[in-house]
Write a structure and sequence with these properties.
Length: about 140
Amino acid sequence: MHLAYPAVLAALLFCTGLYGVLARRNAILVLMSVELMLNAVNLNLVAFDVWLRDRLHSGQALTLFTIAIAAAEIGIGLAIVLAVYRNRGSSEVDRLRDTAETDEAETVPAGDDEGDAPADALTDPEDQATAAAGKAKKAEATP
């Protein structure tokens, strides 16, 4: 058997999967593209195992491990995508950048507006503690 045929097919599959990962916005299509890339690696492993005539069949054993890892990755990935879809209503990868939650300490008025009271003049002890925690967090975050 010529090694060139499966190697070229695997390279085409891997490049197609890489294009899908880089160009797609839908998270499910990105996961499918990752699976395509893993299948290209599996094809290479089996082809080289046959070409080298390995008595231990280590290429095929590695292929089984890769298939098991890919199945676990798809299970976890689909669970994450479904959770994001339920919360956001969309599974676009570009919108996942906005998933960070804001702290309540950052929403406390700092007294910059004319109608707001300054942070030092807050009368409620909970507001004072929240404002102090926000200032401490900002001080830690700045280099």
